[in-house]
Amino acid sequence: MPVVSVYVGVGARRGVPGAEVLELIEQTLAEAGAAGPQPSALVTVEAKASEPGLLEAAARLGVPLRSYGADALSQVAVPAGSSAAALASVGTPAVAEAAALLAAGPGGVLAVGKRKSARATCAVAYGPA
After folding, report:
1. Is the distance from CB of 57 to CB of 21 less than 8 angstroms?
2. To the nearest whole number, what is the mean pLDDT of the chain?
3. How far is CA 43 from CA 14, 47, 52, 103, in A?
4. Taking the CA of residue 72 as centre, how many other CA atoms within 13 Å lie in the half-sphere pointing to its CB?
5. What is the reported pLDDT for 1?
6. Per-residue pLDDT averaged across 105-122, rounded?
7. CA 20 to chain centre
8. Strand 65-68's sheet: what is its strand order?
9. Which residue would you say has higher pLDDT here, 93 or 49?
10. Which of 7, 11, 56, 128 has the fewest other C-beta atoms within 10 Å?
11. Strand pairing partners for 115?
């Protein structure tokens, strides 16, 4: 089996608790069959890069929180389609799926599409190691 990197795209409402983000990430990784491998990074939109709940989740997982600009994310085609809420809030129609796919790079594969909790979204993509 080829070695792959796991990228977890995350979106969040302001003030989301880190525990909620972590729970959603764990559920989504389990669904992807990736509960064992450590994610390479959490990825989000630049507007959410300083969100305490996302930073806490990344720190507790021991991975970096990387971010992309809304313009770059808006260029990524995603299966879940566009979200009016995300577009109004952060300037891109998709955050979690687009961020995961962008981080995975060319040839990246969306393993699990957007999943939601009350205040967060999450998606998992695999990319070449």
Report:
1. yes
2. 89
3. 16, 12, 14, 7
4. 15
5. 47
6. 93
7. 14
8. 65-68, 41-45, 4-12, 120-128, 109-116
9. 49
10. 128
11. 122
Q: State the CB neighbour count (10 A cutoff) for residue 93.
A: 20
Mean pLDDT, rounded, for 36-51: 90
Q: Are 12 and 50 in contact (CB under 8 A)?
A: no
Strand partners, 127: 5
Within its chain, how far is the Cα of 93 from the centroid? 14
- DSSP H helices, the chain, are 18-32, 52-61, 70-74, 84-90, 96-104
Residue 46 per-residue DSSP state: G
123 pLDDT more than 80: yes
Six token digits for residue 68: 């992309």
Is the per-residue pLDDT at 95 higher than 50? yes
